[in-house]
Amino acid sequence: MFIVGNWKMNQNLDSIESFFTNLSLKDSTCETWVSPQSLHVSTVIAKSSQAGKPFFVGGQNISEQDNGAFTGENSAESLQDLGAIFTLVGHSERRSLYKENHELLNKKTKQALSKNLTVIFCVGEQLEERKNGMTEAVLKNQLTEGLKDYPTDQLSQSRLIIAYEPVWAIGTGEVATTEQAQDAHHFIRKILMDDLGLQGDLTPILYGGSVKPSNAEGLLSQKDIDGALVGGASLKGEDFSQLAQIASKLMK
Ligand code: PGA
Predict the structure, then answer these.
(1) Which ligand 1 atom minimizes the distance to the CA of 233?
(2) Of the chain's two ends, which shows fewer C-beta atoms within 10 Å, N or C?
């Protein structure tokens, strides 16, 4: 069971300090991960020793390139040099605001895996797509294109996590019903196994989209939901601690 914070382009040194001051993970047994801005990875790793339990740090995006003349990009290797163990790939904000397409996301995924970073691969449908009954087709397309030719040497390494984040639920306060989320997760697991030949049973699938302490229990208690990718509610140490406590209580 995972609680993964996606801090997006938020937090500064003062708010990171207060996050850790207010974080209490004493009784939590779930995985606690966070992706700050890349510039803060070292600071967060240094502070994470205050968490009282392993607290893993990752990036929000990487370049698909090794290194070279790509001004403004961050390489997987530099992220790893700082001590990051994972990166998000394909967050809906990357897909929509930065026009990252399937082909690019496929390259980024392979690049991260080749540098031994775990990938949290994000998928999710837009509101219009859900209304038009296209949710499953969209998810299938995002998964089969984004994870196409998944490197076979990585199959046994368990370095893949999927995050299902319906776009209409991200940062909107609107959350998928437990049934909508469970159905999508079940479908994703099936695609991983049947269409991609991946270890669907062993691949954690996280739900994301307006998760907060008040709605986490219902979502996390669903059979195919293995944790949450949390934006807004992950910024404060108190909320993050509560989410970790709820997830730990539900460890299956
Ligand atoms: P939210 O963001 O929890 O603020 O909706 C989730 C995400 O974008 O990963």
Answers:
(1) 3
(2) C
